[in-house]
């Protein structure tokens, strides 16, 4: 697997040659009341519904690495409603969703010369990744790594209700304010993520 320059070997977040987002439509609503706006980056919802219902806006990262995930001022679940705090310490920000793959499926999908985009390796032995490229994975894939010397405001944790299933949540390590980019540590090369902790 080829990894983008500067990317961790555990989490690949890059754009490869010929990369194109699918042009999906927002699934918010029911029947004839479905939103229908384009949801090519924030699928399965459009950017507006993602900002309102999930509290996350996807836009250019302040780190100069492409897109990033930011706390949205439009979030409708914050308490109190006028608070600048979008996610309180300990809140689940989002879940890293996608297709769970073993090494054989992963290698069948990605050649050695191709970059694996938006994959989260959660185990080395056995090799397990969550691949969010072609799924309705949402916005966790846009959470960038916190640079050295800059503390992360979020962390990836094992899903407490599904320990046998490889599911990963992103939790706020501290209060995350309106407009703040959501950043986490990706882990290291010691096998199962040292940064993915039990809740």
TrEMBL record:
Domain SET residues, every copy: 54-187
Entries under Gene3D superfamilies matching the protein: SET domain (2.170.270.10)
Any Pfam family matching the protein: SET
Name the UniProt record assigns to this protein: SET domain-containing protein
Organism listed in the record: Rhizophlyctis rosea
């Amino acid at each position: 697997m080829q990894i983008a320059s500067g990317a961790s070997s555990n989490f690949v977040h890059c754009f490869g040659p010929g990369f194109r987002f699918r042009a999906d439509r927002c699934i918010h609503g029911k029947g004839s009341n479905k939103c229908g706006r384009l949801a090519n980056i924030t699928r399965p919802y459009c950017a507006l519904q993602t900002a309102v219902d999930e509290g996350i806006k996807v836009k250019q990262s302040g780190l100069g690495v492409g897109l990033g995930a930011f706390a949205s001022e439009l979030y409708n679940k914050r308490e109190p409603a006028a608070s600048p705090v979008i996610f309180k310490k300990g809140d689940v920000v989002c879940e890293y969703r996608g297709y769970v793959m073993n090494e054989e499926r992963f290698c069948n999908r990605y050649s050695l010369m191709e970059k694996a985009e938006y994959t989260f390796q959660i185990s080395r032995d056995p090799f397990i990744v969550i691949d969010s490229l072609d799924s309705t994975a949402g916005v966790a894939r846009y959470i960038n790594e916190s640079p050295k010397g800059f503390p992360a405001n979020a962390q990836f944790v094992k899903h407490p209700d599904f320990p046998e299933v490889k599911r990963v949540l992103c939790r706020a390590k501290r209060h995350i304010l309106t407009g703040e980019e959501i950043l986490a540590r990706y882990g290291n090369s010691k096998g199962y993520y040292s940064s993915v902790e039990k809740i």
